[in-house]
Amino acid sequence: MTPDVKEITDFSAPELDIYARLTENQLLNRHEPEKGIFIAESPKVIERALDAGCVPISFLAERREAEGPGRKLIRRCGNIPVYVAELDVLTKLTGFQLTRGMLCAMYRPPLRSVEEVCSGARRIAVLENVVNPTNVGAIFRSAAALNMDAVLLTPACSNPLYRRAIRVSMGNVFLVPWTFIGGQKPAENAWPEEGMRKLKEMGFQTAAMALSDRSISIDDPRLKEAERLAIVLGTEGDGLARETLADCDYVVKIPMSHGVDSLNVAAASAVAFWEIGRN
């Protein structure tokens, strides 16, 4: 099948809303999650999404990208619409410089269960209320690079398929298995009560990243010896909830110097993943 290439002439065309006018929450479509959409940006990220089984809806591409390096991706997707224009036209439409040449709208895949995501996993990350998409994307990039087998997110976390999170992760959100604790419509006690119970049932020991009187170092041998270990990382401002700290098997810190007491959650995740992912 050949692609359905369409020259952009009308900025108000409704089929372009997903690229230019719908918010992230509208794309997410919480009321009908099976109809949710995300936007993948750049050929490399689009390729990773396709390799992960995501279903494309349409492309928005700079003409030279569609006729050049991106042509292979477009052909891979059959006869879905491919909207093309020159770079200055696309910049006016999207409101930002389309430096990577290509966007692709795709359907959001169904959320997997915690059990499915964690099947066979030895080292996982749990993100508690991490709301900044940039941090979520950076954590996924580190998780993929530093031997994390899966990522679980609490209900208040930013969605890994927000455009900025995907871009910052360099598409690694499609390489690391992940899901939300509690699913699409989590109960009030999804975290930490139910989530912690489920982790323990699956045989995970839990290590909370926080400063406290009972904190142990990230290189403590007990962490290396754990058969299955979940590293729990907290929100950017307040850190982990007291209930979470009380429920975890360990409280863990990264030793620091020069009077610095903490790192940004994304930076801390990279250090923690490197240390516990080495064995």
TrEMBL record:
<dbReference type="InterPro" id="IPR029028">
    <property type="entry name" value="Alpha/beta_knot_MTases"/>
</dbReference>
<keyword id="KW-0808">Transferase</keyword>
<dbReference type="GO" id="GO:0006396">
    <property type="term" value="P:RNA processing"/>
</dbReference>
<dbReference type="InterPro" id="IPR001537">
    <property type="entry name" value="SpoU_MeTrfase"/>
</dbReference>
<dbReference type="Pfam" id="PF00588">
    <property type="entry name" value="SpoU_methylase"/>
</dbReference>
<dbReference type="InterPro" id="IPR051259">
    <property type="entry name" value="rRNA_Methyltransferase"/>
</dbReference>
<dbReference type="GO" id="GO:0003723">
    <property type="term" value="F:RNA binding"/>
</dbReference>
<dbReference type="GO" id="GO:0008173">
    <property type="term" value="F:RNA methyltransferase activity"/>
</dbReference>
<protein>
    <submittedName>
        <fullName>RNA methyltransferase</fullName>
    </submittedName>
</protein>
<keyword id="KW-0489">Methyltransferase</keyword>
<dbReference type="InterPro" id="IPR029026">
    <property type="entry name" value="tRNA_m1G_MTases_N"/>
</dbReference>
<feature type="domain" description="tRNA/rRNA methyltransferase SpoU type">
    <location>
        <begin position="124"/>
        <end position="273"/>
    </location>
</feature>
<dbReference type="InterPro" id="IPR029064">
    <property type="entry name" value="Ribosomal_eL30-like_sf"/>
</dbReference>
<dbReference type="GO" id="GO:0032259">
    <property type="term" value="P:methylation"/>
</dbReference>
